[in-house]
User: Which sequence fits this backbone?
């Protein structure tokens, strides 16, 4: 295939729409090893013992909706990114969920009362330890799954980029949560591999998550994409570093 033909195919991937936190376009094309624990199962289990919860950084509400059958009576969610806030509101508000726009960069105070929730969930959003501790009721739980700060560092290096939050690890957040008055009851860490089956999948992913390679475009990063294509053509897998961690904490 010619260079121009490849560029045109990748440019089409660049134009593909992306909404919420829905990567179904990459099904079977972006494959990540699975950790031995399931955040979804753990979160649903904690929901069943709660009377209220708030999901921090809910995206388009996709993950929260997957656990609909476990929801307690009172559910709230926050989201900062305007397109996702609109989508989450459209999806969740008709189900009685209060969706609020909360800034996490920089962190801000949340529009919730002290001790309002039995459960605070956070999947891949910023950890605002003081606010988590404030809105949790005594004896109640905070559960988060986070992407390790060095996730995909070898992929980013191909494009001359570096992880923006290399310090985002349990070593950073566990002390923050303890300082806020929470007791950390579990920490799970996992490392594996992220594999793409084609270059177009990488293009789509980098456009959908623009903070990975700031300013990414097919036109400006064509040589790096062609180098990855050559790697694939030589029989080498497009395999990169992946790491996740889970923290569970409880308010005294």
Assistant:
């Amino acid at each position: 295939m010619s260079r121009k033909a490849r560029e045109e195919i990748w440019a089409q991937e660049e134009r593909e729409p992306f909404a919420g936190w829905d990567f179904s376009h990459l099904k079977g094309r972006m494959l990540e090893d699975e950790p031995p624990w399931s955040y979804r199962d753990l979160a649903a289990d904690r929901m069943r013992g709660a009377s209220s919860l708030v999901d921090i950084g809910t995206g388009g509400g996709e993950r929260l909706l997957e656990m609909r059958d476990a929801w307690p009576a009172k559910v709230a969610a926050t989201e900062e990114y305007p397109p996702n806030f609109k989508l989450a509101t459209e999806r969740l508000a008709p189900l009685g969920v209060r969706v609020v726009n909360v800034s996490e960069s920089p962190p801000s105070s949340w529009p919730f009362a002290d001790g309002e929730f039995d459960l605070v969930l956070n999947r891949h959003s910023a950890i605002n330890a003081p606010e988590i501790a404030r809105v949790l009721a005594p004896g109640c739980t905070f559960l988060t799954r986070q992407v390790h700060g060095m996730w995909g560092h070898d992929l980013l290096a191909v494009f001359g980029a570096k992880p923006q939050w290399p310090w985002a690890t349990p070593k950073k957040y566990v002390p923050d949560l303890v300082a806020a008055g929470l007791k950390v009851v579990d920490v799970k860490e996992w490392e594996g591999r992220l594999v793409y089956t084609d270059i177009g999948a990488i293009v789509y992913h980098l456009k959908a998550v623009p903070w990975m390679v700031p300013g990414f475009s097919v036109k400006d990063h064509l040589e790096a994409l062609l180098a990855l294509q050559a790697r694939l053509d030589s029989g080498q897998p497009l395999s990169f570093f992946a790491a996740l961690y889970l923290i569970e904490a409880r308010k005294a």
User: Anything to note?
Assistant: The first helix runs from residue 3 to 15. The longest strand covers residues 182-196. The two ends are 62 Å apart (CA to CA).
